[in-house]
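PT: before anyone asks, these are the final sequences, not the draft ones from last week. 226 residues across everything. Please model them as a single complex and drop the result in this thread when it's through.
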Amino acid sequence: TQLLEQSPQFLSIQEGENLTVYCNSSSVFSSLQWYRQEPGEGPVLLVTVVTGGEVKKLKRLTFQFGDARKDSSLHITAAQPGDTGLYLCAGAERGGADGLTFGKGTHLIIQP
Amino acid sequence: DAGITQSPRHKVTETGTPVTLRCHQTENHRYMYWYRQDPGHGLRLIHYSYGVKDTDKGEVSDGYSVSRSKTEDFLLTLESATSSQTSVYFCAISEAVSYNSPLHFGNGTRLTVT
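LR: through. Structure below.
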């Protein structure tokens, strides 16, 4: 079973600060997906990164896939209270129907 | 938003009773999944379906069964509920199986087994 380790598990910062969360594995993934989950709701896809070294930007969020396709990071610039949530990374190994492995998530709280 | 409805949203049941959770989609997606989410464990796959009457086991399938008699409905049954099955259950759907296909999740069912 492939494992995805996310760090930190919990992060509480002030509005306007920058932050980075990490998703690491010893295994190679075909792609990594990032989801955000709010209380009482299901996870919602933010982005998919596919190519080693790929960088994708979604407004104030920057996602990077490691060159070796074993790790990924999410950087948020000037965090807002609306960024509060649980951030999950998920790796796709072989594209099979059961191919997504989820990390345990980073709980992010942005204090106004 | 993907049209996924999970029912019930909340349920409390007693140990030893059977429980069925329902997932209904209006997207006509072929692939459907049941996950459970627990503190310290993240999302873990219970069962999945790749078509009508085609299902397979996931990582944590013991004590669970599924059925898919129509494209739009995927049922998860706890044959004899135990306290260890207290969890939040999420249904997800996917249009295709490829390394970059996203999952669309329902809003979950919170199940408490007493």
